[in-house]
Amino acid sequence: MSEQRVALVTGASRGIGAAIAERLAADGFFVWGSATSEAGAERITQALGDQGSGLVMQLQSLASVNAAIEQIQGHGHVPQVIINNAGITRDNLMLRMSDSDWQDVLDTNLGGTFRVTKALLRGLVKSRWGRVINIGSVVGRLGNAGQTNYVTSKAGLEGFTRSLALEVGSRGITVNAVAPGFIETDMTDQLTDLQRGAMLERIPLGRMGQAAEIAALVSFLCSEEAGYITGQTLQVNGGLFLV
Ligand code: NAP
């Protein structure tokens, strides 16, 4: 890369987002990583050293997203890589799911991706080069009892990915989704031993995935070599679900 490219990774304080931020920084990008708190943002700044910086962003708030983007632009940076990674769960069976559990998940996982991408897309279009990568989930295809809200958000991300890929392909921008299976992070730490055991039995590779294994694919999709891949959802799930 002649001029250092800039990437934004949402939800970079922990888990998959932290692994992606560190991998892209190692690849040579300047990485802005978001957290929901000042303390989380500071930890990202420490982790990335002079290859990146943390900032605070609440995906469900347009004002917060815009303030974070202004902070990036205030440094003279125009991100050409957007990694929509941050996501939440509020699991419950449909009959017990509250309206706010439904709204929070849709508004964060799907609405947040729309807000962040919209706020930055003009910069990618002007550059005539860009990468948008949305972190979906294997359950977006499989379905999952107790997660109608989360699964809907992840299935929605796949449709968003395909539609945006069609809109911006002529500008040299690729848009893809990466759908992780069960990856060892805080999100899956919430599983009981029983749930974990049942899940492992269904995974041909017999283990949970590592965040770095998701980051490796994201790194490739951000590279020049991946320039002819767009509109796809790529599964990284140990064989749990075969397309
Ligand atoms: P995680 O460990 O729970 O981390 C979530 C990240 O999102 C944190 O950085 C968190 O920031 C941020 N975040 C939470 N709520 C937010 C909000 N309202 N606005 C902005 N940022 C927010 O999650 P993970 O397991 O790494 O998952 C990352 C992505 O992969 C998610 O989209 C998830 O759905 C997807 N995924 C995960 C798995 C898995 O097995 N782990 C499987 C499939 C898909 P704070 O640290 O400030 O809270």
Descriptive labels:
seven-stranded parallel beta sheet; alpha/beta; binds NADP nicotinamide-adenine-dinucleotide phosphate; 9 helices; 243 residues; 47% helix
Put simply, the count of helices is 9
- C-alpha Rg, in Å? 17 Å
Helix-strand pattern, N to C? Answer: EHEHEHEHEHHEHHHE
Mean pLDDT: 97
Global geometry = globular
> What is the count of β-strands?
7
* Helix/strand/pairing category: alpha/beta
Q: What do you see in this structure?
A:
It contains 9 helices and 7 strands; from the N terminus they run E-H-E-H-E-H-E-H-E-H-H-E-H-H-H-E. It has a 7-stranded parallel β-sheet with strand order 3-2-1-4-5-6-7, with helices on both faces. 43% of the residues are buried. By secondary structure, the chain is of the alpha/beta class. Bound molecules: NADP nicotinamide-adenine-dinucleotide phosphate. Residues 10-17, 34-37, 40, 57-60, 85-88, 108, 135, 137, 180, 182-183, 185-188 line the site of NADP nicotinamide-adenine-dinucleotide phosphate.
Short description:
It contains nine helices and seven strands.
Describe the secondary structure blueprint for this structure.
Elements: E1 6-9, H1 15-27, E2 30-35, H2 38-48, E3 52-56, H3 62-74, E4 81-84, H4 99-127, E5 130-135, H5 139-142, H6 148-168, E6 173-180, H7 186-189, H8 193-201, H9 211-221, E7 233-236
Parallel strand pairs: 1-2, 1-4, 2-3, 4-5, 5-6, 6-7
Helix pairs in contact: 1-9, 3-4, 4-6
The chain binds NADP nicotinamide-adenine-dinucleotide phosphate.
